[in-house]
Amino acid sequence: MKSGDFKTFLKNISKKGLTVLDVSIPKSKYSPIDLSESNKILNRVDVSSSSKLEVFVNNHIKKHDALVAFGGYLEVRNIYKRSNHFNSQDEEERNIHLGIDLWCDTETLIYTPLDGVVHSFKNNTNYGDYGPTIILKHNISEVEFYTLYGHLSLASIEKLKVGQEFKQGDQIATLGDANINGDYPPHLHFQIIKDIQEYFGDYPGVCSEKYLEFFRVNCPNPDILLKIDNFFSL
Ligand SMILES: [Zn+2]
C-alpha cells in the first residue's frame, strides 16, 4: 500500500474524530501547543526540568481555558537534548517528534480509538524514554497497522497480556506521572505505525533528520484519526 493510500485509508476509517482520552473532555477544551525549537517563549524555559516544562504547559492550558494541550507531530524539539537516549555519540541527534502529544492530568483515562489486540507492552526506563508503553495491533478491512501509547502508569501494564483484545472505546490504560514516564509532565504520546519492524513494547517516537523520510511515511500524523485540528479549522 502506497503511503498516500494508507493516509487516505486512515482518514476514511471514521468521519468523526476518534478519541484516545477521557471522552468527557470536549474537543473545545483542547488547545494546540508549540514545543518546537522555533518557539521563542519556550526558549526562555529550562526544558530539561520536567517541573519547569510542566509550569509552561499548565500555564498554556489555563490561559486557553483548556483541559488538554496537544500537538507535536514532526515538531523539531530541544527537549531531548538533556538525555543520552536521543544523543549517542555515534548517531545523529534525534529531535524530530513522530507522534502527537496530549498533555493533561496524571491518571487521565486512555481509550483505544479502534478495535485491536495487544501486540506488546514494556516499561521503557531510559531517562527521557516512554516509561510504560502499550502497542496495539489493528486489522481494519484487512489493513494491518499499529498504535503506540507512551508515558502510561505502571498499573496500565501490570495485568496486560499479549494478544488481549480490546474493542473500540475500551479503556486500555491511565496516564503516568514524571516519576514513571521518563521524567516529563504527564502526557500521552500517541503514534501510528504501519510497519512495526522488530520492535516489541517500544518504537522510536523521535528520529533524526537522516531517517525522517522513512519515519514520516511509516508513522503518519495521528491526527488523521483524532481529527482535533479539523475541529479547530471548521
Ligand atoms: Zn511524544
Please give a handful of descriptors for the protein shown.
Glucose Permease (Domain IIA), eight-stranded mixed sheet, two-stranded antiparallel sheet, alpha+beta, globular, binds zinc ion, 234 residues, 6 helices, single chain
Explain what this protein looks like in three dimensions.
With 234 residues, the chain is of the alpha+beta class. The chain has one domain (3-233): Distorted Sandwich (Glucose Permease (Domain IIA)). Helices cover 20% and strands 25% of the residues. It contains six helices and twelve strands. The protein has helices at 3-13, 50-63, 155-158, 212-218, 223-226, 228-233, and strands at residues 30-32, 68-71, 96-97, 100-103, 109-111, 116-124, 131-140, 143-150, 165-166, 171-174, 187-193, 206-207. The strands form three sheets. The chain has an eight-stranded mixed β-sheet with strand order 1-2-4-11-8-7-6-9, with helices on one face. The longest helix has 14 residues, at 50-63. The radius of gyration is 17 Å and the shape is globular. The chain starts with a helix and ends with a helix. Residues 72, 97, 99, 101, 189, 205 line the site of zinc ion.
Order of helices and strands: HEHEEEEEEEHEEEEHHH
For the sheet with most strands, the description reads: 8 strands, mixed
For this structure, the CATH topology is Glucose Permease (Domain IIA)
Q: Compute the gyration radius: what is it?
A: 17 Å
